[in-house]
Amino acid sequence: MNKRTVFIGYGIALLAAVAVSVTLLNEDQSAHVALASTEQSAPVDAVARLGDQYIEGRELRTLLATLPEAARQQLRDNRPALDEWLRSRLAEKRLLEQANAQGWTSRPEIQEMIRSATEQIVLRTYIDSVSQVPDDYPGEEDLRAVYEANKANWVTPAMFHVSQIFLAIDGRQSLDTLRKQAFELAKRAQDGKTDFAELAAKHSQDRESAQRGGDIGRRHLEQLLPEVRPVLARLEVGAVSEPVQSATGFHILKLTDLQPSRTATLDEVRMQLQTKLRLHARSRSPKPIWRGWSTRCS
């Protein structure tokens, strides 16, 4: 038989690794059997073969590991793509065989390229190895020491749970009229006879918060308008403020809840601390010796 047959074998390890089966039989089974009886047998774990060239399971796994995750996923999900990829790899191996037969790797310029590439691989892998941070770093003792030394950085500001009635300055009413309306609403909210949420739902012109009875949620003071910060800081929980004028309108504020400033616990900042300490440790690992060198030609 003169035609070349491409044979793809199956291995349990390969099936587990790529979750697909590959078949590249281009001729009938009898032709394959005849050819297989005259050619050198492939290793037991060979997963692809072209003539006397083959790809072993471990080689395929190594090749797949060098690919980006997106490319690996595409091969797992796309059987034709995996077939084509294996064909291409077998063709490359055949070309390499031809190049070696012609003594290509013995050419001086090729030898120099091989030497240079080898040096770069050795350097890169060595630098990666010495810059690795141990998996168990930082330990509990290190974490606690850094946490205690930097406690001031873990202080969380007070959280104010605020509701408002907002009257916008939009030019449709005079400022005096709008101010008078704001004070009237504030007085009704302060006397307790009318529920603040009802007043907000009916009169507030911030429609989003009005739908929630004026509730604007929990905020740090720094997240609020400068004009309202000192007013809220003086309010007691449950109290309603006098109208506060800002550039956009009048705000009648109710402090519905207050979470005082506190220091975050170690457990709350543990992940953040671990990440920072590991990055810091890696940045202090040995650097390539040529970094920092200066050269001068005279």
Q: Summed up, what is this model?
A:
The chain is α+β, with helices and mostly antiparallel strands and 298 residues long. The protein has helices at 12-18, 29-38, 57-65, 69-77, 79-101, 108-130, 140-149, 175-190, 196-203, 207-210, 229-234, 266-283, and strands at 6-7, 46-50, 53-56, 155-156, 159-168, 215-219, 244-245, 249-259, 262-263.
Name of the CATH first level of the largest domain: Alpha Beta
Q: Per the principal axes of the C-alpha atoms, what is the gross shape?
A: elongated
Query: What's the helix-strand series?
Result: EHHEEHHHHHEEHHHEHEEEH
**The CATH architecture of the largest domain:** Roll
Q: What fold name stands as the CATH topology of the largest domain? A: Chitinase A, domain 3
Calculate Rg over CA atoms: 37 Å
What's the total number of strands? Answer: 9
Beta percentage is 5-15%
Mean pLDDT: 80
Q: Whole-Å distance between the termini? A: 71 Å
Lateral strand order in the biggest sheet: 6-5-8-7
Low-confidence residue ranges? 1-39, 288-298
Number of helices: 12
Estimate nothing, just give the exact number of structural domains: 3
Secondary structural class: alpha+beta
Tell me the major beta sheet.
4 strands, antiparallel
Helical residues, percent:
40-55%
